[in-house]
């Protein structure tokens, strides 16, 4: 065993010239891993910002829908509050109070483009306890038609109107925190007088 130990001491040590070339490989490999981690972090950061913008736009659109829905319910409540049948007028100027317009007299009945509707002349209302919409929500109420009850003999021979329901079209518009988020909703509301 002592001979082996002496023989090992007599051997030459590792060649130092080979170690010099291997030291740079670790540095390059470490920089490459660091570059990959930086790219992953940048991608995660940009994805997070993009998702935050998407959720903000969704929240703005939801605000516009809630605003329009609230305005629609107010228009329907206006129809419900009518004391007697109102078939509307063609030149309904509702800047001071709600009124009923005749059907198709507003923008020729075309509701495809909400920007062309005369919303400025339509009654607007202040929303209490609801902070947020950029523009106050608005609604339009139009008289549509009367649908008599089927199989009704109550008005026959009496000269009275046949009982039935009068239909009103309520159109409402709402915006979100920005005017770029706009929602137009519409309902048909039936009322018996």
How would you describe the overall organization of this protein?
With 193 residues, the protein is α+β, with helices and mostly antiparallel strands. Helix content is 38%, strand content 19%. The protein contains two helices and four strands, in the order ααββββ. Strands 1-2-3-4 form a four-stranded mixed beta sheet. Strand 3 and strand 4 form a beta hairpin. The chain is rod-shaped. The mean pLDDT is 76.
List descriptors.
alpha+beta; single chain; 38% helix; 193 residues; 4 strands
Secondary-structure topology with pairs:
Elements: H1 2-10, H2 16-80, E1 100-102, E2 138-148, E3 164-175, E4 182-191
How many β strands by DSSP? 4
Helix percent band: 25-40%
Trace the largest sheet across and list its strands. 1-2-3-4
Oligomer: single chain
Compact overview of the structure:
The protein is 38% helix and 19% strand. The chain has 193 residues and is an alpha+beta fold.
């Amino acid at each position: 065993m002592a001979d082996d130990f002496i023989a090992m001491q007599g051997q030459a040590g590792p060649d130092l010239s080979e170690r010099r070339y291997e030291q740079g490989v670790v540095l390059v490999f470490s920089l490459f891993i660091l570059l990959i981690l930086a790219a992953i972090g940048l991608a995660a950061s940009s994805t997070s910002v993009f998702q935050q913008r998407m959720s903000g736009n969704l929240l703005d659109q939801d605000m516009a829908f809630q605003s329009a829905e609230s305005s629609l319910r107010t228009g329907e409540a206006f129809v419900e509050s009518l004391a007697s049948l109102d078939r509307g007028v063609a030149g309904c100027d509702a800047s001071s109070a709600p009124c009923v317009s005749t059907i198709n007299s507003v923008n020729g009945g075309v509701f495809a483009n909400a920007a062309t509707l005369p919303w400025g002349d339509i009654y607007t209302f202040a929303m209490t306890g609801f902070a947020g919409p950029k523009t106050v929500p608005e609604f339009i109420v139009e008289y549509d038609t009367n649908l008599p009850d089927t199989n009704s003999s109550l008005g026959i021979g009496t000269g009275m109107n046949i009982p039935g329901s009068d239909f009103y079209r309520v159109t409402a518009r709402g915006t979100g925190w920005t005017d770029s988020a706009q929602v137009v909703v519409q309902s048909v509301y039936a009322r018996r007088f």
